[in-house]
Each structure stands twice: as structure tokens, then as C-alpha cells.
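Re: that backbone. C-alpha cells:
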């Protein structure tokens, strides 16, 4: 008969594999298992230590043992091979899942009333107070009356597209490329949308002034830090100029600061800080620094728009999830959030540095990259004639997942040579080999093109 510790290990592995013990689940206590298997506590400890060595579980001092968040069975060859430059959710290994689980449990107790009723459409007042303090760290100073809790930044963006604005204007201007979810919101709601090219150097401010002056722009949508997909961040000077132009031509700015917390430079100011009166609508998602599944973000609006925004919010979903709001409120109050942000800032900065080093080492001449100091995204500008769509297909065959940036443009502005790489969920150890594969695919597609000129039929 197998040794007792091996039996314990095999039972736990089976439960993890069949999902009975999901990622982050707490394992039975040592005493419970020693009773059940009629063995000593040392035998259980031996099994747990072995499972820890195999990276299947981990210990939390004074709490117990937990299943790791991203366990991959050694037999799951496909999963082990996958190089994920595609996922846009936060790094699962960097998330405070256990702490947050406690906050959710507490929220069920503390916010029973709100769970059984529809709650404040603008968001829990106590959470709004917490958010006021939290936003101060990002140089956004406002009051709870102007702050809304929304069901993800996407909800605020969706509503703003169709909402009337105090300037009475009708059209939308956005950077090109930009966040795909915003393009979808504009296209599906049939808004008249204009684009302005954003490069790694920034915007042409004269062109911006021209667009503001001549195109009846109600708001300019911008992602000023760690842009999606470019990774570009504006200088403070550029942000100030953009706000001045918006004031001059009576245009609103919708500032999507989705990754603001990751900025390693505390001197970088949001556009909001250059006009806190309301010219800039500030939106901050909790999907990247916390969990996309919470569906929570905050939006700061000008006084003139509060009433209309509240009506739109009510018509969209009454109020954002009470459970998510309660848990985030408890998490912010506990003070754990700031520690978490400090930790993840380092994680993403390191991964972004590794990615750029690998690109410098492996990518062929004629290929350029953007150079963000942190954030999730970097764009590879492929050599002429190499299409990102083809690259994505080829890379998939090598188990490297990346994104074609073509959908991150309005139809009339499309570029086909931009590949978006996300570092959020890729394993650090795979960054180098993933970029090598990208380099190989570029070389293949360039070689194939030469071949195509000489012997077209062989390729068909
Ligand atoms: C720039 C940008 N804004 C907003 C969002 C959506 O945020 P949320 O999950 O809060 O709706 C994303 C998601 O990837 C994004 O990249």
C-alpha cells in the first residue's frame, strides 16, 4: 500500500485537477487530515511540503495552506508551452486573492442591507469617501458629490458617448489607435467619431487645435498614461497644453487613467489636475490593479453633468454590484491596497523592462518598438509588408499569443503593421523565448515575400 503521505498528495492533486479545490482554495487543516487518514501530523506536513515544492500549494503563516492561483498540471503540455502576450487582465500571481476573499466574506456580513435592496445609484457613500482619499495619491482632488462608482470604466465610456454635454456639441475625437472597447462603444451607438494619430512621439497639437476648432467636438477621449495599445505616456507639458486647448475651444476631455497607479514617477500629473473644475472627466478602472471580475471603476464628473449622468447610470443598471463595492470599501479601509499597488508596480515595471531587453536583443532591423516605463502594453511596429494579422496566425501555431492592433483603429485610420504585446499575464521566464519566436516569424514572412516574387506558385 502507498505511504500515507503519498495518498494525501494524490487526493489533493485529484481534487485540484477536477476543480473540487479551485485556485486560491484553502486546504483542510493538518489536524483534520491526520484524523481522516489516521496518521501523524508530521505525515500530513510531509505531504504538504512536497506539494509546496511542486508549486501546487503555498503556505500563509498563521492561516494555513492554499492552492496556487495558476496551477498547471505537468501533463498539460499545451498550457505550459503557451506564451501569453495577449491577456489583458492582471497578473494572477500578483493578485491578493486570499486577502480579497476575506473582504468579500466580510462584505456579505457588513452590507446585508444593501444586498437585499437596490442601493445608492451613485455608489456607496462610504466607498466614495475612500475613493476620494485614494484619488488624492493620483493628484485628483475632488469631493464625493462629483464622484460616481460605475460598473467598469467601460460603462462610463459607453454612457458618455451618447450623453448630451453642456457644450451642446455632438462629435467625438479619439486618439488613433486607441482602446478597442471605446471604439466599439462609439461605433455601435453610431456616434460621429474622428481620429487623430498618436505616435510614440505624441500628438500633433496644431492638428488637435484644428480639430477642436472645426469639428464640433463634444469630447476628446484620451488614455494619457501607458496607452492601450501603444504604451505611450504624455509629458506633463503636453497634458497641460491639451487641457488649455480644450478650455480655449470649449471641448471636454475624457481622461481614461486605467493604469495610473502603476506610474513609477509621482511627478506625472493627470490631465484632471490641470483643470479640476470639470473640463476633464476623470475615469479610473479597478480592473487592472484589482480584478476585472469586480466590474468597478470610478468617474469624476463636472457639476453641470451630475444630474444627467445619474439618470444614465440608473437606466443602465440601477447601481453597481453591492458585493463588489462592499469588498473594495473594506479592502481600501484596511490599508492593504497601497501595499498591493507598491508590489505590483514593481512586477509590471520589471516585466516591461525584460520585454524591451528581449526585443532589443532579438527583433530584426526595420522593426521598432514603443518604450513604456511600465503598464501592460507595448507595440511592435513591424517592417514594411509584414502584416500583424499574418503574424498573429503564425505565432499561434508556435503557442505565442499576441494581438493585431488593427481593430484598435477606426476603420478609416487602420494600420496593419502593429502588433500589441501585453506583459500582464506572461510568465517572466517565457518573455525571451516568446520574443525570439516573434523575431523568427518576422524573418519568415520577410523571406516568404522575397520567395513570392521569384516563385509565386510554390506558395499557393
Ligand atoms: C484603456 C482602457 N480603458 C478601459 C478599459 C476597461 O476597463 P473596465 O474593466 O473597468 O471596464 C480597458 C480594458 O482593457 C482599457 O484598456
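Recovered sequence:
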Amino acid at each position: 500500500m502507498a505511504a500515507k503521505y503519498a495518498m494525501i498528495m494524490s487526493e489533493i492533486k485529484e481534487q485540484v485537477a477536477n476543480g473540487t479545490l479551485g485556485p486560491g482554495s484553502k486546504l483542510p487543516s493538518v489536524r483534520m487530515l491526520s484524523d481522516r487518514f489516521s496518521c501523524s501530523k508530521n505525515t500530513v506536513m510531509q505531504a504538504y511540503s512536497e506539494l509546496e515544492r511542486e508549486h501546487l500549494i503555498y503556505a500563509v503563516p498563521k492561516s494555513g495552506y492554499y492552492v496556487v492561483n495558476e496551477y498547471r498540471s505537468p501533463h498539460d503540455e499545451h498550457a505550459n508551452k503557451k506564451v501569453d502576450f495577449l491577456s489583458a487582465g492582471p497578473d494572477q500571481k500578483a493578485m491578493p486573492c486570499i486577502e480579497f476573499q476575506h473582504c468579500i466574506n466580510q462584505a456579505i456580513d457588513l452590507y446585508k442591507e444593501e444586498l437585499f435592496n437596490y442601493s445608492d445609484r451613485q455608489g456607496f457613500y462610504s466607498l466614495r469617501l475612500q475613493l476620494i482619499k485614494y484619488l488624492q495619491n493620483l493628484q485628483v482632488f475632488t469631493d464625493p458629490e462629483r464622484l460616481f462608482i460605475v460598473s467598469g470604466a467601460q460603462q462610463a465610456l459607453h454612457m458618455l458617448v451618447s450623453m448630451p454635454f453642456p457644450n451642446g456639441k455632438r462629435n467625438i475625437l479619439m486618439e488613433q489607435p486607441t482602446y478597442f472597447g471605446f471604439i466599439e462603444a462609439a461605433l455601435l451607438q453610431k456616434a460621429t467619431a474622428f481620429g487623430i494619430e498618436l505616435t510614440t512621439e505624441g500628438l500633433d497639437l496644431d492638428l488637435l487645435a484644428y480639430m477642436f476648432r472645426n469639428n464640433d467636438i463634444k469630447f476628446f477621449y484620451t488614455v494619457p498614461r501607458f496607452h492601450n495599445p501603444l504604451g505611450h505616456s504624455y509629458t506633463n507639458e503636453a497634458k497641460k497644453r491639451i487641457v488649455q486647448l480644450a478650455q480655449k475651444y470649449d471641448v471636454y476631455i475624457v481622461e481614461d487613467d486605467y493604469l495610473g497607479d502603476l506610474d513609477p514617477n509621482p511627478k506625472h500629473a493627470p490631465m484632471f489636475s490641470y483643470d479640476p473644475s470639470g473640463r476633464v472627466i476623470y475615469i479610473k478602472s479597478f480592473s487592472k490593479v484589482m480584478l476585472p471580475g469586480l466590474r468597478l471603476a470610478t468617474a469624476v464628473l463636472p457639476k453641470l453633468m451630475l444630474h444627467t449622468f445619474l439618470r444614465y447610470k440608473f437606466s443602465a443598471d440601477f447601481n453597481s454590484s453591492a458585493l463588489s463595492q462592499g469588498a473594495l470599501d473594506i479592502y481600501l479601509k484596511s490599508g492593504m491596497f497601497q501595499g498591493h499597488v507598491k508590489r505590483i508596480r514593481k512586477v509590471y515595471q520589471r516585466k516591461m523592462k525584460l520585454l524591451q531587453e528581449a526585443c532589443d536583443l532579438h527583433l530584426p532591423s526595420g522593426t521598432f518598438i514603443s518604450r513604456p516605463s511600465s503598464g501592460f502594453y507595448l507595440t511592435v511596429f513591424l517592417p514594411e509588408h509584414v502584416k500583424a494579422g499574418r503574424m498573429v496566425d503564425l505565432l499561434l501555431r508556435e503557442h505565442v499569443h499576441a494581438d493585431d492592433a488593427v481593430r484598435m483603429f477606426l476603420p478609416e485610420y487602420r494600420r496593419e503593421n502593429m502588433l500589441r504585446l501585453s506583459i500582464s499575464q506572461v510568465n517572466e521566464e517565457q518573455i525571451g523565448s516568446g520574443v525570439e519566436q516573434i523575431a523568427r516569424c518576422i524573418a519568415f514572412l520577410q523571406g516568404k515575400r522575397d520567395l513570392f516574387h521569384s516563385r509565386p506558385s510554390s506558395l499557393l
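The chain has three domains: 4-76, 98-336, 338-459. Residues 88, 152-154, 179, 181, 223, 228, 256, 258, 285, 287, 292, 297 surround pyridoxal-5'-phosphate (CB under 6 Å).
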